[in-house]
Fold:
Amino acid sequence: MKKKLLSVVLSTTMLTAILAGCGSSQTTGTSETSTQAATTDAATETTSAAAEASSDTSASAASGSSATALAYKGEINMMHFSTSEESEGNGGSDGFRTMIQQWTDAHPDITLNQNVLANDEYKTQIATMASADDLPDVFLLQGMNTKAWAKQGLILDMTDIIKNSPYYSEYNQAYFTPFTDGDKLYALPALTGGTCTVVIYDKAAWKKAGFDSFPTSWDDVKKANDYFTKNGYDYSIAFGNGGQWQANSDFLSTLGDRYTGPDWFQSIINKGGAKFTDDKFVSALSFMQNIFKSGIFNKDFNDVTNEDAREYFISGDAPAFIGGNWDESYITSTLKSSNQDLYNNIGFAVLPQPSDATYDENSQNIGLGYGIAINAKVASDPDKLAACVDLAYKLTGPDFSNYVATNYALGGLTKIDNVDLSKFSQVEQDFYNWSYTDTTPCEIYDSYVDPAVWSVCNTELQSLLNGEGDAKTVAADIQKAYEENYLNK
Structure:
């Protein structure tokens, strides 16, 4: 049976701000190559990429056509976080690395120097480089940095480059929102569209606790926790906030949507009058503090990362886990080869609904939080710019989307139709349907606004979840950071 790979549709308020795209027949065939560039964490690597002489590289940059010969013969510095380790359990990372290898194989006269770091280290390092005005030629831009770095002149205005792309009509236009400042576009959304908040659970374990599916209310989760703690478990849900960002990305931005609705956060983005001190957002923070004090989570949730916490689920120490689509990829890949019984019993659910929340109980945050950006300085060398643009199209175009759709049932920036899901396991099909058809998308908070705001939020969330302080104080501190670093700039 064939099903269309449905593009992820963001909230209506986001869509009204962007141009709608339509289908095209320019999609290329699925790539067969699975060769990957050898990469290691925190390592700088060099690969070769070929530049064929061209008499019109400016036209090449404008059109983005990979068929046009490249005149550039030299080095391109690139920085990203698709490590070899991550690619083993992450379809988007594998596809990204595979496209890099295909591009370097096709262009052996260009030297592509890759600085590949683990995700947390990448965020720190790229911010440091931006502060020093020393960004790589090509890199992954996080949406929340777009406006500030554009204002500072650090990143190339890619509006014409994107709109002149031969694949433009096939792009999912909603994904560009985090990389937009006014009417200008600063990056091509990269990697795969996936959730930051999915409940992964052992259906057999929860059935023994009296639930045929994961509970839709937190009160029922607490009832299940009473059963689990009496029957060999110390807690019901594994979660890791050791990196501080997880409580925000993997929990609060979906929970917050349940309390505020999508228009509130759209107003935060647009400086439209909404405040983090609004009662409905304070209620979300207060609920979050209380639920993490309830005993349903592992006691060390603030000390371990999401990678650590997912091992609690894999080992059977926890009957459920909350994380992102990258965690789902790793968990299913690991269990498929190590524990077939647990693999066959994997289920997916949205966060349960708090009793006092009034908005969409079926929401989950999803999007493309990173995009391929180009250092503004590259514009001084048209031939080099043409090569960088060509690489950006390769990493985000139909070759990438075909690869991740065919091999992982995932979606990217470029829409792909008629993906045959029949070759995938029931678990993989279930997650595809959960991600793209059965749930309501909402925004990922830290894809927007300014990193200084989320730095305050993430730090204070960790203390709040430890039982320190109160929701109103945290909300006031976040609002102050918002006003100082975003609203009044």
Remarks:
- The radius of gyration is 22 Å.
- Confidence is low (pLDDT under 50) at residues 1-67.
